[in-house]
Amino acid sequence: MNTKISTNYSKLRVFLFLVPLFLLITIVLFLYQQHALSINSYTKIQQDSFFYINHHLGSYPNLQFNLTQFGDCLISLSLLSLFIVYAPKIWEAFLSASLISCLLTRLLKSLFAIPRPAATFDHSKFIITGEILSGNNSLPSGHAITIFTAHTVLMFAFMPKKLSPKIIWFFLAILIGLILVFTRVGVGAHYPIDVIVGSIIGYISGLLGIFISRKYKIWAWVNDKKYYPVFIVLFLICAVILINRIIHENLIIFYLSLICLLFSTYKIIKVYVQK
Q1: What are the φ and ψ backbone dihedral angles of 14, each rounded to 5 degrees?
Q2: Backbone angle region of 224, left / alpha / beta, with phi > 0 → left and psi within -120 to 50 → alpha
Q3: Can you tell me which residues the record assigns to a coiled coil (predicted)?
Q4: Which of 46, 71, 106, 164 has the most C-beta neighbours closer than 10 Å?
């Protein structure tokens, strides 16, 4: 599996950055055309679309709240823990991509300082599921960035060889990603453009992570069994945090993540002991 993933990553070319960059430019031009480059205008032009999407998706609060957790770094790490033994190349790309996405998230949120929907609209007019977020850090969506960062790393890792399956795989992966990121609108945490921009930034972060890991072997130690105790400790800490979350929120996604972590911890301990 690791060899196949390495081969898939080696086939990627720089032109893959053109589409996301084009989309970002298109969004900026659209906002400029709508005179929506100011904070007030940005939120105002999305009011109707936000209420519409929030109303329809927010009608399924349990589903939305579970799915939106995929944008939590702890959940992404827990699910990806399954690949630490069988496909460390994914982790090499994911670690670089995560650092880039974290940097871009903090930088862009501080730069734009867009107030969240709960800080702009009357709470009685839309559905809020979970914590009420009312800070000035709406653009871009950090959850969307996290989802598409992990999504992109996985999408290209398991990309089929033949053209037709490759096209189907790509669009299916993007569709699933969009379903997950728009839960941020469904729970009342973000505007539609927030999650679209976040998705694009996440895609770029994932690609950059792949290219960096391909050229620089800074994470090659991930595949070295003598460093497995680091991951064992990390996974156990994450498991404790998840158990605490289950106690307080009791979401299905937390149970799934915990199972993945415990299985991964078992496998990594087994391999380490047998070295």
Answers
A1: -65, -25
A2: beta
A3: none
A4: 71
Q: 74-113 b/e with 16+ CB inside 10 Å = b?
A: bbbbbbbbbbbbebbbbbbbbbbbbebbbebbeebbeebe
Provide the CATH number for the domain formed by 2-223 in this structure: 1.20.144
Q: What does the alpha-carbon distance between residue 70 and residue 99 come to, in Å, rounded to a whole number?
A: 18
Global pTM value: 0.96
Each residue of 150-163: pLDDT tens digit? 999 999 999 999 99
DSSP-based three-state secondary structure for 77: helix
The helix (run of H) or strand (run of E) holding residue 93 is helix 88-112
User: Omega of the bond prior to 140 within 30 degrees of 0, cis?
Assistant: yes
Closest by CA position to 258, among listed 229, 232, 238, 231: 238
pLDDT tens by residue, 8-19 = 999 999 999 999
Closest residue by Cα to residue 194 from 31, 21, 77, 75: 31
- Quote the CA–CA distance of 233 and 239 in Å, as a whole number: 10
